[in-house]
Every structure is written in structure tokens, then in C-alpha cells.
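Quick one, C-alpha cells below:
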């Protein structure tokens, strides 16, 4: 009878506790009850959503204690406080720790879980007391980022949740990598790269004993979920991960969990490779593209994520950190969410408009620029394309990289009408990709030459401290893209005529006029048995009065010019490859430093003498770039002509065919 009453009481209390599971979170952490030994009261064992599990576990482990805790209190009995499960129940309680206790209770004298304190001494009631629940270390998956806003933080966990063991992960990786390809079959480059990347991921896991990095208790841990969220937003940085699929785990067998583990690591590795410039080989864009991005391999990516406190931010950081890239990224987001261009309608095409002309499109243009119509007696005054409208159009053209003529051209109409939004997005993406080609560290102080903008900027951090117009190479004499370090400048330089110019341009003239060299101020010199042509210093020297040297394999440098009228042209792709700089002595003062005694006036006094070499006080990085889209400090997007066709080739290589 006693046994039957005990079982009946146990069943009744079980039903009662299940009904109270929803009420327990609201109960205060301490309720006045008769004091009873309750074992461990570690608050780390409890978390929201686990109250029912906590109560049931306690019921099975210590039935006498629980039933007596809810028994009526006899008159006159002392009332002490006992601790019931708080609303912070079981967040970190591993099912593997509770399940053996439940099982041992069902089996009578079955073995106790490892680490528990076995005490089978009879209690005062004659009931054998089961051991306290073991203390558990905090679950590393529950990071500070995994709070109530994380829907996976409180996902139900089954007592039989499989564990992703090393042997299963090792076997899954071997199957994923696959066997060595047949010797008589040469894999295509994409296949070879994929296999190399998979081998690298396999090797990474082998070095850590095939311990999982992301999967814990049948799901991605908090770090893995944060990483997956970053991967889901890869398009914000212009990346394309559509070919990569992540299998999100929701329990399942160990081999299924292994697939999830591998798929997340592969996606992260692909993100890191693309973000660091691995989508395109720049050398395929053109022979003068000599940049080489530092592409992150899978081992480098996964090692960085393994050691990171915030793996999502660490993965994002494989994208360029430069301000120019971040401004384009923000403009891309604005373009994608803003439908203003399409909402405001288009301006019909028609003949070019100049000041004084009348046209039915003029009111639309006035409305676009919020221009008022001056009061006139002429009822058609609003149709006049006057100087006010032309001035507004010129300002717009200047801001958008169009010739600032004030004439309403077909190209200006297309831009005002929004053009092709997808085409603009693709142009931004192509320029973001070219940012990946640059060194991550441009230098605290550096020079950037933008070929399509025909400009040079000297940066101090993110601030431009000197700006100059430049002349760059013709489309058939491209200025190469590369990065080097300026080390010295030469005042009153000789021009050593490149051999290509001598052969292609000078030799035919010399054949027609044997005195061509002497008549044009050139001289020949012998070096190691070879004859070279050079032009002495002077006002007629093609390099002008100064050149800025950053030794490179292209023999390209910045220099003055004796043809300064070229800086007045809008399109300045006119040189043989070197970069001609407007107001070069001002640039020399900026790079040599007034604080080192080098002023523009002092340098001007040196002009006309012998060749002089002046070393820079500090080496200065020089980056020759190619950006057809960029955002200024006011947030205005500027577009430039694709002088060498590089942008079109990048768009094609990225699969952007708009």
C-alpha cells in the first residue's frame, strides 16, 4: 500500500507540476516553505523556458523532497525558507547531465552519472536519497550575444541529442573532399581551386583533432549563428555566395550535423576569399593592371574566425576598410532602397538645349532643380532655357562627372532621368571590386592617382591635404595600375627617352632628317655598348623642371611638363604612360615638407641649374588607381568615363551584364 500510495502521489505531483510549469516563472525566487535538504541550488543550472524540465528532474531525483515541499504545513510547525526553481531555469543545463539521473531513478540502483556525489544513506523517512545534480560548466554557446532576442537561445533540447564527434566529422570531411582525381584527367581551374580549398578546410580540422567549430548540442552555437547572419548579408558588400549553401542544423544524427558544420565553414571561407579580392584575377583585365590582391585562403579565414571574440565582425573585416570603399557601399545600399529616380519620372529626349532656346521640356527641368519662373509678360516664359536653367544644369553636370557645359545634352537627359538604375548599381559594384585590389594599409600618408578622374590627391589619413590635375596615358599607352613607394625627387631632370618612343616615333623622323636630334635638343650617350637618347634639363625638357621617383618596372613616374596647356582640357588621357602633374612645385613642397625647410619658393630658386636629387624625409606610398565611380566628402556620387575599358571588363568578369 505504501508503495502504491507513493506511486500515486508521484503521478499526481507530476501532473500538478506540469500544470504549474507556466506559473513557476512568475513565482519569486524564494517562497516560504518548510526547510528541506534540496541538494545544489546553483543558479547557473536554470534559465527561462526550462522550469518544467527543472521541476520534473527534481521530482524524479528527489521525490520525497519535492512532494513534502508542497505538503500542507501543520499548525505550530516552524516555517523556514526553501528555494524553488527561479525564472532563470536550465539555460545551461545539458540534457546529457540530467538524462542519466532520470535513467538511474527508473532503473533503481543503476550507475550514477560521472561526477555526482553518491550518497545512498537512508533518509529520515527511510527513502534512499539520490545524489544532487552535478555542477555544470557554463555553456560556451551561450555568449553575451545570445539573449532573449535570439530565437535559438532557448530552443528545446532533447535528452538524446546526438553529439558531433571527431570520428564522424573526419569521415564526413573525407567524403566531402573526395578521392584524388585520375592522373589522366586534368581538372578545369575551377575544379582544381575547389579541391584545393576543400583540402585546406580538411587540414584545418585535422589540426584541431576534428573538433567542431560551430555545432553544439544539435545546432549552431551563438558564434555560428552570428557568422551565418553575416554570410546572409554578403550582398551588402557586393559579394555573390549564391553557389554556396549552408545546411542549418535542427538536431538530427551526427552525420547530418557534420554536413552543417562543414557547410558553414565552407561558406565562411568563400566569403573571406571573395571579400579579399579572390573573384577576379586583375591581370586578366589588362596587361597594365599590375595589382595583386592579398587573397585570404581558407586556413587563414578559419583560423581568424576560430580565435575571434566576434567572428561575424572578423569575417566582415576581410572586405576593404578604406573610406572610399565604405562610401560606395553606403551608396549601393541607398540606391537599392531608394526608388526616387524612378518615381520622379523621366525627361523626354530631344534636341540639345542651349541658353535662349524654347522647349516644352524646360518646365520639367525647372521642376527637377526647384527653380522658380521669373515673372514675365510672355506667357511662354516658362519654356525658355535661360541662363538660370543652364547654370543649374552645369552644376549637375559637374557633380555627376559630365562635361559642365550647361547644354542639355542627351547624356545629361539620361542621367537626370535616372538612366539605368541596374547599370549604375553594376558600376558601383565593379568599383567596389577594384578597391579589393589595393593594399589594406594604404599608409597614414599617401598619394592616390585616379586615372579616369585625371586627378592626384595627397592624403593624411582620410583627409586630402593636396589636390592636383594630372595628364595620364593614352588608351594605347595606358598608365599602369600599381602601388610603389616614392623615395626622392629630382629637380632639373634629364629625360631618358624610352626605347619604345625612340623606335616608333624618333627613328622615322631621324631617317628623314639626320639632324633631328640636334635640332630638337636631344643628345645621345653610350652605356655598356648601347646608345641611348636623352634630353638635357631646361624649359623645353618634356619632364619640365621636376620629377617624383618611385622606382618600378614600368619606368613610370610623376613629373612636370612643358605642355601645361593640356591641363585646361577636360579629357586628359594624352601622355605615353607617365603622369604629368599640374603645379608640381606645390606638390613637391607638400611631399618634402615645409617643416623640413622645403618651400615652393626655395624649390623654384633651384630651377635652371644642374640636376639635383632630394630624398624624401619619409618614404611615401603611391597608388595609381582606376575608379569610374566614387563618393565625395559630401556624399555625392561621381561617375567618370571608362577611359581604358577596365570597368566594362570587370563588370563582365563579375557576371554583371546590364
Amino acid at each position: 500500500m505504501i508503495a502504491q500510495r507513493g506511486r500515486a502521489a508521484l503521478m499526481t505531483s507530476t501532473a500538478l507540476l506540469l500544470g504549474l510549469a507556466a506559473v513557476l516563472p512568475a513565482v519569486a525566487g524564494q517562497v516560504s516553505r518548510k526547510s528541506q535538504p534540496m541538494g545544489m541550488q546553483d543558479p547557473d543550472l536554470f534559465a527561462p523556458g526550462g522550469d518544467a524540465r527543472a521541476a520534473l528532474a527534481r521530482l524524479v531525483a528527489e521525490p520525497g523532497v519535492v512532494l513534502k515541499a508542497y505538503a500542507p504545513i501543520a499548525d505550530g510547525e516552524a516555517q523556514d525558507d526553501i528555494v524553488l526553481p527561479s525564472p532563470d531555469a536550465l539555460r545551461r543545463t545539458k540534457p546529457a547531465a540530467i538524462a542519466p539521473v532520470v535513467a538511474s531513478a527508473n532503473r533503481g540502483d543503476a550507475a550514477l552519472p560521472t561526477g555526482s556525489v553518491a550518497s545512498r544513506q537512508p533518509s529520515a523517512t527511510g527513502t534512499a536519497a539520490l545524489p544532487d545534480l552535478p555542477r555544470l560548466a557554463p555553456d560556451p554557446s551561450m555568449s553575451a550575444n545570445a539573449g532573449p532576442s535570439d530565437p535559438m537561445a532557448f530552443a528545446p533540447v532533447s535528452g538524446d541529442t546526438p553529439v558531433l564527434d571527431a570520428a564522424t566529422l573526419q569521415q564526413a570531411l573525407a567524403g566531402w573532399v573526395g578521392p584524388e582525381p585520375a592522373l589522366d584527367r586534368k581538372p578545369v581551374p575551377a575544379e582544381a581551386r575547389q579541391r584545393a580549398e576543400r583540402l585546406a578546410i580538411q587540414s584545418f580540422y585535422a589540426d584541431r583533432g576534428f573538433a567542431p567549430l560551430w555545432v553544439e548540442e544539435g545546432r549552431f552555437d551563438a558564434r555560428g549563428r552570428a557568422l551565418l547572419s553575416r554570410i546572409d548579408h554578403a550582398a551588402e558588400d557586393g559579394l555573390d555566395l549564391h553557389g554556396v549553401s549552408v545546411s542549418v542544423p535542427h538536431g538530427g544524427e551526427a552525420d547530418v550535423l557534420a554536413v552543417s558544420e562543414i557547410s558553414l565553414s565552407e561558406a565562411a571561407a568563400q566569403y573571406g576569399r571573395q571579400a579579399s579580392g579572390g573573384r577576379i584575377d586583375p591581370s586578366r583585365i589588362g596587361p597594365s593592371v599590375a595589382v595583386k590582391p592579398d587573397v585570404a585562403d581558407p586556413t587563414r579565414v578559419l583560423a581568424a574566425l576560430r580565435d575571434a571574440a566576434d567572428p561575424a565582425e572578423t569575417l566582415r573585416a576581410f572586405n576593404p576598410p578604406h573610406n572610399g570603399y565604405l562610401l560606395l557601399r553606403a551608396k549601393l545600399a541607398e540606391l537599392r532602397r531608394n526608388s526616387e529616380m524612378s518615381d520622379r519620372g523621366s525627361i523626354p529626349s530631344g534636341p540639345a538645349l542651349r541658353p535662349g532656346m524654347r522647349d516644352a521640356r524646360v518646365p520639367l527641368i525647372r521642376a527637377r532643380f526647384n527653380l522658380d519662373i521669373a515673372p514675365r509678360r510672355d506667357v511662354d516664359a516658362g519654356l525658355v532655357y535661360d541662363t538660370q536653367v543652364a547654370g543649374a544644369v552645369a552644376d549637375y553636370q559637374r557633380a555627376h562627372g559630365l562635361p559642365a557645359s550647361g547644354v542639355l545634352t542627351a547624356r545629361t537627359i539620361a542621367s537626370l532621368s535616372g538612366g539605368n538604375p541596374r547599370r549604375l548599381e553594376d558600376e558601383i559594384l565593379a568599383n567596389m571590386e577594384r578597391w579589393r585590389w589595393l593594399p589594406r594599409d594604404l599608409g597614414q600618408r599617401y598619394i592616390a592617382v585616379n586615372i579616369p578622374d585625371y586627378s592626384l590627391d595627397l592624403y593624411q589619413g582620410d583627409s586630402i591635404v593636396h589636390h592636383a590635375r594630372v595628364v595620364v596615358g593614352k588608351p594605347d599607352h595606358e598608365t599602369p595600375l600599381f602601388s610603389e613607394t616614392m623615395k626622392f625627387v629630382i629637380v632639373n631632370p634629364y629625360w631618358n627617352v624610352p626605347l619604345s618612343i625612340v623606335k616608333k616615333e624618333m627613328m622615322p623622323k631621324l631617317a628623314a632628317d639626320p639632324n633631328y636630334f640636334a635640332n630638337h635638343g636631344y643628345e645621345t650617350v653610350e652605356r655598356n655598348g648601347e646608345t641611348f637618347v636623352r634630353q638635357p634639363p631646361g624649359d623645353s625638357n618634356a619632364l619640365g623642371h621636376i620629377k617624383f621617383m618611385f622606382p618600378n618596372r614600368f619606368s613610370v613616374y610623376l613629373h612636370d611638363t612643358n605642355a601645361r596647356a593640356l591641363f585646361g582640357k577636360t579629357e586628359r588621357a594624352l601622355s605615353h604612360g607617365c603622369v604629368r602633374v599640374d603645379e608640381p612645385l606645390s606638390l613637391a613642397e607638400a611631399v618634402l615638407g615645409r617643416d623640413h625647410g622645403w618651400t615652393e619658393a626655395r624649390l623654384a630658386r633651384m630651377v635652371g641649374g644642374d640636376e639635383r636629387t632630394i630624398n624624401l624625409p619619409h618614404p611615401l606610398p603611391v597608388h595609381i588607381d582606376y575608379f569610374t565611380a566614387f563618393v565625395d566628402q559630401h556624399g555625392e556620387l561621381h561617375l567618370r568615363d571608362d577611359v581604358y575599358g577596365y570597368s566594362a571588363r570587370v563588370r563582365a568578369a563579375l557576371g554583371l551584364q546590364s
